Structure formats: C-alpha cells, structure tokens
C-alpha cells in the first residue's frame, strides 16, 4: 500500500463531512475520497443487518478506488458493521466512531450526561458496553429524524429548534442543568450551534470527531502509511449514491464557515 494513496471516509449521507473537515485540518498531508450513501439514508432507523449490507457495499467501492485506510464516519454504521468489516479486511486500517461518552464522563464525572444518537446506535451491543463502563450518569436520547434536517440543508429552522427543545425539555425541567451533551451522530455536529443555543452555558457539548481523527493519524503512523507530502492536486473527492443536490449539499457543508 502506498503512503500517498487516499483515505476513504463514508457515512449514510452528509454527516461524515463533519469528520472529513476535522481530518483535513488535522492531517494536512493527506487526501480523501468521501462517500455519502444518501440513496440509502437514513441508516439509523434500519436494522443492524441492513446497515451492515450497505456498509460492506460502500467499503468495497472505496477499496476498489485504492484507499489505504477506511474511516467509518458514522456512529450507526460503526455499531452495526465495524466488526464485520474488520473481519473481512484484517490488514486494513479501519477507524470507527463512538459517542464521546468516555470523554464526557472524564470531563464531567458528576451530573447528567445526555447522549444524542440514532436508535440503531443506542440499541447496539457496542453502545451497551460503553454505557456500562461510563454511563452511570448518562441518559440515552434516541433522535430518529434529526439527521433528516441536516440532509435537507436545515441547520437552524424553528422546526429544528422545536424538535430539539422537545428532546431537552425533560432534562431542563425545574432548572436542572445537564453537565454534558454528547453528539453521538456525525450529522449532529452540524447542529452544534443551535444545540448550544438551547442549553445552559455550563453544559459541555461534545463530539467524537477529533478523537477519531487522532486515532486515524496514530494508526497511519504505526503502519508507516502516513503521508509526508501534501498532495499536488485536490485534497477531496466527494462521491454519493444520491443525486446532484445531495452532492451540492455535501460540498456546501464542507465549505461552511463554522
Ligand atoms: N451520521 C450517522 C451517525 O453518525 C447516522 C445518520 C443516519 O441515521 O443515517 O450515526
């Protein structure tokens, strides 16, 4: 495998673009092929088996394009399919995501931690293990339909705010202040600003993007696959199973000042 080969990143749609943005910033000598499986989104309300079939198809596609590593930039696909993909490609660097519950627990050992994620992620065996280890003060908050706002390009509408207010209401009742909110789906990272605006100032809002990219950098270094020269051409190629407008949305989210 060549050091200057691209890194493949994928998600059910445009959420993983938030991970790609972090990777572009933290790994300046790497280049990336991003695949958004928009035609099959959302993953988060399917079965684990269905998500695994889809994730396998996307992984095959990215590997056929010569990727030296794969980032599953989707908590849902990681919960459902990471183990299967690692068994299929034992020599490949495969980096997954998980809700940043450990980080939240370390930073806020006391107080309520809300973990926002898809129904598939929150009902998976992988999440159960994480919750058993770090979830003593955590509340799992399934958010079916929340990713669809982002897929529609909506990151600030009154309807979106109403959806989130409804989710937070039980935890903000009687002046309660959650210690932390974990964005356990890569789509939700694009909602950071609106989520922040609905919470008390002392509530931390965390995601797992930097930790994931740090792990990617570590693995590339260990395997002597980290690129040491900035690529000559474009650093990103975006592919999708969706249509022109999904491609346009991904490009817009990639370029969004945040
Ligand atoms: N972005 C995905 C995640 O991190 C899920 C969105 C979906 O439901 O497809 O979980």
| Straight-line N-to-C gap | 35 Å
CATH class of the largest domain: Alpha Beta
Give the count of structural domains: 2
Number of helix segments? Answer: 11
Query: Which percent bin holds the helix content?
Result: 40-55%
- Low-pLDDT parts are none
Broad structural category: alpha/beta
Bound molecules: D-glutamic acid
Strand count: 9
Percentage of β-strand residues: 15-25%
Task: Tell me what you see in this structure.
- This protein is α/β, with parallel strands linked by helices and 258 residues long.
- The protein has two domains: 7-97 and 209-254, Rossmann fold (3-Layer(aba) Sandwich), CATH 3.40.50.1860; 101-207, 3-Layer(aba) Sandwich (Rossmann fold).
- The protein contains eleven helices and nine strands.
- It has helices at 17-26, 48-64, 75-88, 101-107, 119-122, 125-134, 146-151, 158-172, 192-197, 209-222, 244-255; strands at residues 7-11, 32-36, 69-72, 93-95, 113-117, 138-142, 180-183, 204-207, 236-240.
- It has a five-stranded parallel sheet with strand order 4-3-1-2-9, sandwiched between helices.
- Helix 1 links the parallel strand 1 and strand 2 (32-36).
- The relative contact order is 0.21.
- Bound molecules: D-glutamic acid (DGL).
- The site of D-glutamic acid has 16 residues, from helix 3.
